[in-house]
Amino acid sequence: MKYAVIADELRGRIARGELPPGARVPSTRRLAADHGVAMATAAKALAVLSQEGLVRAEPRSGTVVASRERRGSQQRLTRDRIVRTAIEIADAEGLAALSMRGVAARLGAATMAPYKYVGGKDELVLLMADAAYGERGYPENPPPGWRDRLTLGGRTLWSLYRRHPWLAQLAPVTRPLPLRNLGLHAEWALAALSELGVDAATLCDLHVLFFSYIQGIAIHLEREQHALAASGLSEEQWMDKQAPAMAPMVSGRPVFARMLRELGETGYDLVLDDIFESGMRALLDGLALRFGR
């Protein structure tokens, strides 16, 4: 079994101290690429080690070697623990690495045990999303003015996507998820937009525009995680590697070429947080201009 070979190799590295407690374990994408196996096979190897208590998911850090004190610890299985464990896996490895089997392994439970609390992966993902959207709320007394209120709503959603990059990947804006906690964010934004004095159809359109702008930027958060895990290259390293291919791309395009030349001289970092803030200001400026507010 290929997953067993991968698990044995990692188990040996942990035993020899090459991967000490707290050290990051290669991601499922990295393991899949290194061993020439499917993502599911690599995920199963990590699940085996998790079930043995050797590794654990660490939000925004990936899978890490568990401390000796935590190894073998057991707690009662509940729906909340299942959901929180699934969120930890998705935060660390991405939604593609999530499976009911993997959640059970991470919890040290029998493979079918989570099904007593959750009907399957589709239901689990909805529960995860609802829990994630519910992690941040809004003050009882909103700031004065539609613009400040909408700015707070946008930044709150962005912070949740930052914390859970997989969250922006779940559904197109044309098919909103029926989640109670997502509705709280929608109500906040709609209340702000309603101050523009628009009819119901325009109000709905503006809310879709607002939400899809944030989701559209946030969708790149998990994609960058995947690219980093798959290639092992940072953004800067990847751009340096692509430099030779840029020459024919900009040939005959003077503005494109000038931009790249100037950026090469001055330096440039593509920071999604900065782009989000800049785009939010432009969006709100446009609304203020259009509706005279």
From TrEMBL:
One Pfam family of this chain: TetR_C_1
The keyword DNA-binding appears for this protein: yes
Keywords, comma-separated and alphabetical: DNA-binding, Transcription, Transcription regulation
GO biological process, one term: negative regulation of DNA-templated transcription
GO molecular function, one term: DNA binding
Domain HTH gntR-type: residue ranges: 1-68
Protein name as annotated: DNA-binding transcriptional regulator YhcF, GntR family
Species for this entry: Amycolatopsis pretoriensis
Lineage: Bacteria, Bacillati, Actinomycetota, Actinomycetes, Pseudonocardiales
